[in-house]
Amino acid sequence: MYPLDDTIAAVASPPGGAARGIVRVGGPGAFQCVARFFQGDDRRPFVEPPHPRAATGTLRLPDLDSTLPCDVYLWPNARSYTGQPVVEIHTIGSPPLLQLVLRSLTAAGARLAGPGEFTLRAFLVGRIDLSQAEAVLGVIDAADPRELNVALRQLAGGLARPLDELRESLLDLLSHLEAGFDFADEDIPFIARDELLSRLAKAGKQIADTLAQMASRDDSAVAKRAVLIGRPNTGKSSLFNALAADSAALVCDLPGTTRDYLIAELDLDGVKCRLIDTAGRRGERGEKREERRETELPLAVSQDLYSAAQSAAAEQSRAADVQVLCIDSTRPPDEWEIARLQDASDRRRIVVFTKCDVSGGLDLDCPALRTSSVTGEGIDRLRGELRRKVLAARAGRSEVVAETAVRCRDSLRLAGLSVERAGRVASSEQDELAAAEIRIALDELGKVVGAVYTDDVLDRIFSRFCIGK
Known about the structure:
Elements: E1 8-11, E2 18-26, H1 30-35, E3 38-40, E4 53-59, E5 68-75, E6 86-93, H2 95-107, E7 111-112, H3 117-124, H4 130-141, H5 145-155, H6 160-182, H7 193-213, E8 224-230, H8 236-244, E9 262-268, E10 271-277, H9 303-319, E11 322-328, H10 335-342, E12 349-354, E13 369-370, H11 379-395, H12 402-427, H13 431-449, H14 455-462
Parallel strand pairs: 1-7, 8-10, 8-11, 11-12, 12-13
Antiparallel strand pairs: 1-2, 2-6, 3-4, 4-5, 5-6, 9-10
Helix pairs in contact: 4-5, 6-7, 6-13, 7-12, 12-13
């Protein structure tokens, strides 16, 4: 868990150059850090204002000969997203300039923020609950307008509000039952039996409806398929072994070693995925084909076996929920690879450069993960990207952000079972048992909104955020 009493800073705009970039500073010393470098056009002292405000001016940075024009947006302690003083610096979106601003701020007493640390602070001070924090990540990762709308509704409290109301209703029922225990000798009815059963039934229906919101058109118990595709000898089998933490795939420098496809079950932080390694793709109709005689086939396999392997690889690729396109970084891409690098329409695809431990590799201008099965470079990032793609594939028509659905489905199911049992025992006037079941339901619902949490749960959620959010 990060400390909360220090000042943090990070670049908050997306990577790459742009007309405008943002550096965010938050924490007790945010205004003091920025005041060392900022001079407002209005010459007013740079202090924490009583209300949010914006100012225009310049930054004077130690390692920059000229001043840097900027706008700053100021949020005082009680009005900010994190519940602490926050300053956003909006300036020219040149990555070297933004890094220079960040270095100057850290030299002035701030430290670099960790992944999701701003949102974590917002959660810890009660600005948002866990479902809303996950909705922030859903907004960032949204792949289409529908996913964005689902995340925005959840961020606005579309899930949190009804669950808070449900918890309040169950707490009210529990208080009535416990008051009855305290005054058992007085024969005072704190809640009528019919009302108790009616409200428990209503609570059970609300939990069932919330679970239905998280339902997908697909069976979430069935692991999605991630298929490694690419030319022969691009390192697919080595990558398969690195991801599976196994040596199930035979690795050899000769192209065409993989004939049949191999399968490994991955657990990506609670998200199941079936990883499939296929034979390398060779020439296809419509592209230049290598001259290939049967005697030139690697490992002296028959043409029938070779064709069957190619057909199996093509079928697995078509049926994949996620495609991991492997490009050998030690050689220039061929026509088939270039065509797929230029095709941005397939949202299932993750592009991976392999063998990046070898010096002098590719430096193509395309979004890709750099990996090495030898050093482990990029393997954790690839697992994270696989998890995100698998969750997107599972989302279907769910009305809840996929991260929330995965985390909360079991808690809601257990809460529903407890409320159902509470209704059964309450109907036979076993109120002590009913109260015990309601407490279990409240604990499970508390896990959904974050009223009940552990540090490892928070680490698992917020480690998936990008830095600056």
